């Protein structure tokens, strides 16, 4: 259908072209002789001749009507003339009179009068008058005489019959003459019709059938896409006009098809080029983002492919650290080495940067690699002077420059984030050391100074032993805190999500302590950031460590949920001896660490007694993917009389409580 529509449109174009032709060319497409008109004239002539012949035949046939009867009547007169002689000699007088009357009626019969009228231009009326006169003047008086003069009648009868024979023969010849005219008219009409038909057939064969075959063959060739054929039909008929029109339309279609094929070739080349361009951009993006740390080498490996697709001169790439410090890397698509004109690191004295033209005379078009306000470098392409880049080449280079700039910007951003993460981690380590081990060592330093003073004063052995024991306990506490810090710093979240790391932590504490830990995790649907996962895991490990060391519990319940507004709830409960707020004043820093980690999550933590006995730690924080304002609440305690502990156990020595 599309092919038919295209051909119809082309035909309409050719028709419009014919309409818009000059007057002289339009006259060439005019017709002076019409095959249809000539054929109609021939048929009109044939019909006219046939009609005239038919009418003439009808007229002549009508003129012959009654001639046969008249001939019979005239022929019967001869027999009646001889019968009168016999009747006059042997028959009665009445019969003779009756037969005389019959003969006279026959002579005056309507058929004879009609024949005489039809053949009035022939000798028949005179012959009939002679027969009537002969009968009246010479034949009947012989029969009317008394007696009848039969001998004279018999002598007169042959002459009378002879006249009748002449009359009958003349009537017959007149009738046959008209029949001959009818036959001649029909034969002439048939000849004329056959002649006109032959001429018509001959003319139709030469002017219609043969041209139609040629036109059909040409139309079939045009349908197959062959526009080289031409049809020459002489004359000024409709078919010759059609042949000239088809010839002109074929030429127009040949030009249109040639132009269309050229456009198709151009479009195919453009699509191929676009496909290669898109493939290049896709491969470039995939290669650049697969190695985001150092994309410069990947960029250099793409330059040769870019030059091949563009079909231009060498392509060079200059990369800057900052716009003020100049370029630090330069390479070309030929050998990935700096261009011959390059003056690294003295970019300000480079002639190309000043003139934009190579020493060979080629012009350089520069595409800046820019990310926001940062100038990251430039992508340059060389092309001959006076041959500017095409739009698709400019678009490809612009897109590639943006892609390079984005890759460089992401690489710099990743390096900056890595540095920030390293600094933040160092700050965390320093804070942890300051809040735990540094204070413990500072206390031991004071104890050591006290011991020196006691030794200088030569105090008693009891005081010296007490000071040494305090230093020993302090060193053990510092060593324990160091081990806890090392365990905390070695926490890893290797698999995606908090659940696998939490399960490993539960298995670790349960295997080492014999504590039965029940893990109730309901955050599979909640995407936490790595920072949130690490802090949650550290808080849970700190709480579980306190449960194992101080709570003397048999069971521990760990529950992670999310409420209807999106807040994350982490609860660690045990059935141990509980917690006393006064324990915090004894110099334990676990509670302070828990609170600082909760603050890092923009949340809060509450520590208190569990209603059924033991300790409850409740952490609440809003996840990063849900911006939920959460009111900070201070750490709370629930006091409980130690002497009312149903288990009869002593309180925990860690102010952070158990989880």
From TrEMBL:
EC numbers on record: 2.7.13.3
Compositional bias per record (Polar residues), positions renumbered to this chain: 9-18
Chemical reaction(s) catalysed: ATP + protein L-histidine = ADP + protein N-phospho-L-histidine
InterPro entries from the UniProt entry: HAMP_dom, HATPase_C_sf, HATPase_dom, His_kinase_dom, NarX-like_N, NarX-like_N_sf, Sensor_HK_TwoCompSys, Sig_transdc_His_kin_NarX/NarQ
Protein's UniProt keywords contain S-adenosyl-L-methionine: no
Keywords associated with the record: ATP-binding, Cell inner membrane, Cell membrane, Kinase, Membrane, Nucleotide-binding, Phosphoprotein, Transferase, Transmembrane, Transmembrane helix, Two-component regulatory system
Originating organism: Pseudomonas songnenensis
Domain (Histidine kinase) ranges: 428-625
Subcellular localization: Cell inner membrane
Organism domain of life: Bacteria
Domain HAMP: 206-258
Pfam family, any one: HATPase_c
SUPFAM superfamilies linked to this entry: ATPase domain of HSP90 chaperone/DNA topoisomerase II/histidine kinase (SSF55874), HAMP domain-like (SSF158472)
Annotated region described as Disordered, given as residue ranges: 1-20, 630-659
Protein name: Sensor protein
Mode of membrane association: Multi-pass membrane protein
Lineage: Bacteria, Pseudomonadati, Pseudomonadota, Gammaproteobacteria, Pseudomonadales
Membrane-spanning intervals of the chain: 35-61, 184-204
Keyword Methyltransferase appears in the UniProt entry: no
């Amino acid at each position: 259908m599309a092919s038919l529509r295209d051909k119809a449109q082309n035909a309409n174009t050719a028709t419009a072209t014919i309409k818009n032709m000059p007057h002289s060319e339009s006259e060439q497409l005019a017709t002076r002789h019409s095959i249809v008109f000539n054929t109609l004239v021939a048929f009109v002539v044939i019909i006219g001749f046939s009609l005239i012949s038919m009418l003439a035949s009808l007229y002549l046939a009508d003129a012959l009507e009654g001639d046969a009867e008249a001939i019979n009547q005239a022929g019967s007169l001869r027999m009646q003339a001889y019968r009168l002689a016999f009747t006059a000699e042997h028959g009665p007088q009445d019969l003779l009179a009756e037969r005389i009357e019959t003969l006279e009626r026959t002579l005056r019969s309507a058929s004879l009068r009609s024949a005489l009228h039809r053949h009035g231009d022939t000798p028949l009326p005179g012959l009939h008058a002679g027969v009537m006169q002969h009968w009246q003047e010479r034949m009947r008086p012989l029969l009317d005489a008394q007696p009848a003069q039969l001998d004279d009648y018999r002598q007169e009868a042959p002459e009378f019959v002879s006249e009748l024979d002449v009359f009958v023969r003349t009537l017959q010849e007149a009738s046959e003459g008209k029949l001959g005219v009818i036959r001649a008219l029909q034969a002439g009409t048939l000849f004329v019709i056959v002649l006109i038909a032959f001429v018509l057939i001959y003319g139709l064969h030469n002017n219609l059938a043969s041209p139609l075959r040629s036109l059909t063959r040409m139309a079939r060739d045009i349908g197959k896409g062959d526009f080289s054929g031409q049809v020459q039909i002489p004359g000024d008929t409709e078919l010759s006009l059609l042949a000239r029109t088809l010839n002109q339309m074929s030429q127009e279609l040949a030009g249109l098809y040639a132009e269309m094929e050229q456009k198709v070739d151009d479009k195919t080349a453009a699509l191929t080029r676009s496909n290669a361009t898109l493939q290049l951009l896709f491969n470039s993006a995939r290669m650049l983002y697969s190695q985001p740390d150092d994309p410069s080498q990947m960029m250099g490996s793409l330059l040769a492919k870019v030059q091949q697709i563009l079909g231009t001169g060498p392509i060079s790439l200059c990369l800057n650290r900052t716009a003020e410090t100049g370029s630090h890397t330069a390479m070309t698509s030929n050998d990935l080495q700096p261009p011959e004109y390059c003056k690294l690191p003295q970019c300000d004295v480079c002639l190309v940067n000043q003139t934009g033209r190579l020493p060979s005379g080629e012009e350089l078009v520069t595409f800046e690699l820019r990310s926001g306000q940062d100038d990251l470098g430039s992508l340059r392409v060389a092309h001959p002077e006076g041959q500017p880049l095409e739009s698709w080449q400019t678009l490809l280079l612009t897109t590639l420059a943006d892609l390079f700039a984005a890759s460089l910007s992401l690489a710099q951003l990743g390096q900056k984030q890595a540095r920030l993460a390293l600094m933040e981690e160092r700050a965390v380590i320093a804070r942890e050391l300051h809040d735990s081990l540094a204070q413990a060592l500072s206390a031991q330093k004071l104890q050591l100074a006290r011991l020196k003073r006691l030794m200088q004063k030569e105090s008693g052995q009891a005081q010296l032993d007490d000071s040494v024991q305090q230093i020993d306990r302090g060193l053990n506490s510092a060593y324990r805190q160091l081990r806890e810090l090392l365990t905390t710093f070695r926490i890893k979240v290797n698999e995606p999500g908090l659940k696998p790391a939490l399960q490993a932590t539960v298995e670790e504490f349960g295997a080492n302590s014999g504590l039965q830990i029940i893990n109730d995790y309901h955050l599979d649907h909640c995407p936490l950031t790595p920072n949130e996962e690490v802090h949650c895991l550290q808080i849970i490990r700190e709480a579980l460590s306190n449960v194992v060391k101080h709570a003397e519990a048999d069971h521990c319940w760990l529950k992670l949920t999310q409420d209807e507004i999106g807040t994350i709830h982490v609860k660690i409960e045990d059935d141990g001896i509980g917690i006393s707020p006064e324990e915090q004043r004894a110099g334990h820093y676990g509670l302070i660490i828990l609170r600082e980690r909760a603050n890092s999550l923009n949340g809060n933590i509450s520590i208190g007694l569990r209603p059924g006995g033991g300790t409850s730690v409740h952490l609440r924080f809003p996840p990063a993917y849900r911006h939920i304002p959460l009111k900070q609440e201070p750490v709370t305690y629930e006091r409980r009389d130690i002497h009312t502990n149903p288990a009869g156990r002593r309180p925990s020595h860690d102010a952070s409580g158990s989880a």
